[in-house]
Amino acid sequence: MMSTLPDSVDETGQLLRDGRYVADRSLATALYLSLSLGRPLFLEGEAGVGKTEIAKVLSLQLKRPLVRLQCYEGLDVASSVYEWNYARQMVEIRLAEVTGTGDKEKLSSDLFSEKFLVKRPILHALDKTPEGPPILLIDELDRTDEPFEAFLLEVLSDFQVTIPELGTIKAQEPPLVIITSNRTREIHDAIKRRCFYYWVDYPDTERELEILSFKAPDMPQKLSTQIVAFVQTLRDMDLFKLPGVAETIDWAHALVQLDHLTLSPDVINDTLGTLLKYQDDIARIKGSEAARILDEVNAALQVGQRSG
Prior knowledge:
By secondary structure, this protein is α/β, with parallel strands linked by helices. The chain is built from 15 helices and nine strands. A hairpin with a 3-residue loop joins strand 6 and strand 7. The mean pLDDT is 91.
């Protein structure tokens, strides 16, 4: 049985929190408006800040199926919407030739019926399901080409797809659409105009600590505080790829797995690969720089404890 949509911004925030997603009020507001007004939500931000996770949490909390379209360069209609089962069509043609049954017009009509249609994510998202309209996640739209964006306009405007051989297929109930972008390129304004927009930024210290309390509940408080302070410092540096929330969580899990109770220069050097994903960044931080940052972090935490 599906859950009903939240009736307020507060209920939306609580729905996310129940799914162990810590959102600020502005994000809860954007999501509430998207759900209540039936408009797609366009989430933009750096990789690893939790954009995709929102769709997953919605699917879990609303008990709706999640239909995910992972975007990539060269994505086309055959991979994202539908294609015909050519192998099965050829078998049907051969059978008709061998048995000599059926006329050509009927065979041609049958070959392009729904039983030979292979549905891809977007067409699946237009189907009616017992659980209610699904969550359609169009992930990393910025990886696709502009022609695919143009095709999406029909889907996002009218929640329908036109198949030349069958006609127009329209959703009885529109899916709940979440679009994400890492902003490797600009998405066309025509797409954004059809959506509510929200920039998902890196969390502040307080919110990241709360995220860790959900995602790594067994972690010692001192270690959590050190981790978040260290990561927050790195995000102020000119690195090739700043660590996202996903990397913070991965680092926390790695340190718990290794039974570390506190950060030290050696611990940081041994586990930097779970936090930073480019060798140039690792080489820059590893060693004396890691020790310097940790000293600053520990000094700031001690000052905070005394003032608290």
